[in-house]
User: Fold this.
Amino acid sequence: MAPGTTSQINAMLVVDDLQVRYGGVLAVAKVDLHVGAGEIVALVGGNGMGKSTTLRAIAGLNDCDRGSIRFDGAAVEHVPAHHRVTLGLSLVPEGRRLFPRLTVQRNLELGAYTRHDRGEIAESLDRALALFPVLKDRRTQLAGTMSGGEQQMLAIARGLMARPRFLMLDEPSWGVAPKLVTRILDAIQAVNAEGVSILLVEQNVRKALSIAARAYVIQTGRIVLEGAASDLLDDDDVKKAYLGL
Ligand SMILES: Nc1ncnc2c1ncn2[C@@H]1O[C@H](COP(=O)(O)OP(=O)(O)O)[C@@H](O)[C@H]1O
Ligand SMILES: [Mg+2]
Assistant:
């Protein structure tokens, strides 16, 4: 086993032979991947390759056609999405999906929709705002009036309000000014340092691989390559053939 990798058997998340269709369209043909406790793992690939569909299937927002998804050793592929959230599995969706006409504060509160303990929710709110202090100043502002980067921070903070142990992020650098992308990646690393395992989807491959320990490359719905992020970045053939670098 290479350094930095985790035994698949003991991994927090294990996806085995996943297949997902939209009607007749095969969006994910065969995805096998795992994420160990405490890891940051990247899933990279071009537009339309099946990245979002994979994350949505893990979150329970798309049905699987075939395959299994195990979280903490238990099969969850038939568990409803909101229950997966209570198990500790959270998705920050592509395009952020905020409520633009609600305040920052209200968007954050909605992230805690599966929780009931007000004291604990308030504690999560404090932690989320500590991670992104800019949101603290904007609590009463409507989400839709903020910049792309600030909205992405809000989307991540909202995802954290579910108190996940496993967080999936779908293209967090999308629509974000370059100078804020680094800020967002730093925040993802800070979340990870607090013990949250991360599955990160990005088209910004170099950035994703700079914070991930391992990565999977997906092409037309199939994992075609996996390895240590540093090995993928060091391999010129891999960079040309798969990563568009
Ligand atoms: N709601 C949908 N209905 C039908 N086809 C879809 C839908 N969403 C995505 N697809 C198709 O599934 C494939 C994978 O899409 P997606 O998972 O969004 O890719 P990525 O996130 O890698 O860009 C693409 O061919 C896309 O056109
Ligand atoms: Mg996508």
Notes: Residues 51-52, 94, 170 surround magnesium ion (ligand 2) (CB under 6 Å). The chain has one domain: 13-243. Strands lie at 13-22, 25-35, 40-44, 66-71, 74-75, 89-92, 166-170, 197-202, 214-219, 222-228. The two ends are 27 Å apart (CA to CA).
